[in-house]
Amino acid sequence: MPDNCSVMDNNLQIFNSLVREKVAFKPLFPPFVGMYVCGPTVYSDAHLGHARPAITFDLLFRYLTHLGYKVRYVRNITDVGHLENDADEGDDKIQKKAKLENLEPMEVVQKYMDNFHRNMDQLNTLHPSIEPRASGHIIEQQQLIKEILDNGYAYVENGSVYFNVDKYNTKYNYGKLSGRVLEEMMSNTRDLECQGEKKNSCDFALWKKASPEHLMKWPSPWSEGFPGWHLECSAMSSKYLGEEFDIHGGGMDLKFPHHECEIAQSTAAHGKESVRYWMHNNMITINGQKMARSLGNFITLDQLFSGKHDLLAQAYSPMTVRFFVLQAHYRSTMDFSNEALQAAEKGLQKLMKAYGNINKLKPGKSSSFDIEALNIKCYEAMDDDLNTPVLLAHLFEGTRYINSVADGSGSLTETDIIKLKNLFGTFMFEVMGLLAENTGENNRGTIDKLMKIIVEIRQEAKEKKEWGTSDKIRNGLKDAGVILKDTKDGAVWELES
Ligand SMILES: [Zn+2]
To answer: How many A from CA of 4 to the centre of ligand 1?
Structure first.
């Protein structure tokens, strides 16, 4: 494992969405790294679409930590201000759900945030260092609005505050991240019906005046209202990571308008860009289709783990899902299907089995495989923009070594066996965050089968009046914590509680 001294000269290349190419990762203040990732809006159960960014940035967090960096990983919880559509119209998603379920908005938030956290723990993603909530940072958001107003990049209209995109674009470039051109966006929306209070259809809300029936609202210099959705990430990232920080991540679908607006807000407030490396994971499709509730192909993580969904042929364990996500590069599209998940399940089992077999290998006098070369290749794969499919290919190469030493067609010295075990430990568990899954259900299945055999053997012994054998089996089982009872329908057993 690299030590802290080598952190300064890491070889990590990451794809920076802002410049659209792979670049060397050089943090502002090594060995510290500041990383902000857009978290969920907690108004419904976590689904497959949440798993990919969570696993992608968990992988990055783990790898940077493994390289020796001290990472402050901030992932927010959106609990207010995310409206139903991007044009600052419609109901707040959480408030809408609160009305539907007859709950307080914060009850909705608690319920789905707990669900998200439970699912993330099942997927073995590490907790972020800080998980700030939008509703807990209203003052910081209002402060940011004041700065943007003072700098002349926003205007107040009827108690709401809007970001002046046109004005911003005369000095900076609105659209630089998403590659959109403001003039084109404006001409596309020019003919739309009345844009209400906005001077320009591309302007976006920093603060919205609340209607009397709106539930989540706070006093402000402009009106009783609530912050615009994009604002929280600018306010909370600069609060916890500084006005300039290293990495900002999120799903590709957030590039526009969310991240574009974040860049504009931070730049308008501070006079400079805040994020040095933008990273975006690609989306997951379901059997080739976009995932959407209206298409009936919306699969929550709980459904995936239990198998309870019409599209699922079986339940898939959290580690199968994690392995499935890691099998594709984070910038590639990936399609969910039962076949793909079943293949992931097999692949994971193969890898785990090989790892388990390393301990059983008998050391030879020489090595027929170059373990150090394999180790270097694993680091090269991770350094190449977190290329987990290539990393997995190298680990499968390692399983080939293990199998051939086991069947005697190859050999490894004792030192190389230890190196290989460390290599698997580092990349499978520490970096990729996989876990050996021995679920109670799996164990139970095996126990059921074994007990069936034992009970049959004892029954045969009894029929032959071999009482010594039948007593030996019953007493032996008792010592192992299994209680056997003879009934008129034959022997039944239960585990001692
Ligand atoms: Zn965000």
So the answer is: 31
How far is Cα 490 from Cα 456, in angstroms, rounded to an integer?
10
Three-state DSSP class for residue 227:
strand
How much is the pLDDT for 8? 61
Question: Tokens in use for 90?
Answer: 């419609």
Whole-number pLDDT of residue 193: 45
Q: How far apart are CA 460 and CA 469, in angstroms?
A: 10
Which residues are within 8 A (CB) of 487 and not within 5 positions of it... i.e. 6 or more apart? none
| Residue 293 per-residue DSSP state | G
Q: How far is the CA of 351 from the centre of ligand 1 (A)?
A: 36
Those residues of the chain that have pLDDT short of 70 are 1-8, 188-195, 439-446, 497
Q: What are the Cα distances from residue 271, in Å, to 28, 48, 230, 253, 266?
A: 18, 38, 18, 26, 8
Quickly list DSSP for 19-85.
Answer: TTEEEE---SBTTEEEEEE---B-SS--BHHHHHHHHHHHHHHHHHHHTT-EEEEEE-BB-S--BSS
Q: Is 324 helix (H, G, I), strand (E, B) or coil?
A: helix
pLDDT of residue 444: 59
Q: How many residues does the chain have?
A: 497
Say if residues 37 and 330 touch (Cβ distance below 8 Å). Answer: no
* 41 CA distance to ligand 1 middle (Å): 10
Instruction: Determine the distance separating the centroid of ligand 1 and the alpha carbon of 197, expressed in angstroms.
Output: 24
Rounded-to-integer distance, Cα 87 and Cα 369, Å:
59
DSSP 187-220: HHHTTSS--TT-SSTT-EEEEEEPPTT-SS-B--
Ligand 1 mean position, distance from CA 239 (Å): 14
HSE, CB side, 13 Å, CA atoms: give it for residue 184: 5
User: Which DSSP state fits 137?
Assistant: G
CA angle 105, 111, 112 (to 5 degrees): 95
pLDDT of residue 153: 98
Position 455, amino acid? V
At residue 195, the pLDDT reads: 59
Tell me how far the alpha carbon of residue 272 lies from the centroid of ligand 1, in angstroms: 18
Burial of 46 (0-12, 13-18, 19+ CB in 10 A): buried
The token duo for 458 is 């004892």
Cβ atoms of residues 36 and 77 within 8 Å: no
Q: What is the pTM of this model?
A: 0.86
3-state secondary structure of 251: strand
Cα 474 to averaged position of ligand 1 atoms, centre (Å): 62
Quick one: pLDDT at residue 4?
47
Q: How far is the CA of 49 from the centre of ligand 1 (A)?
A: 15
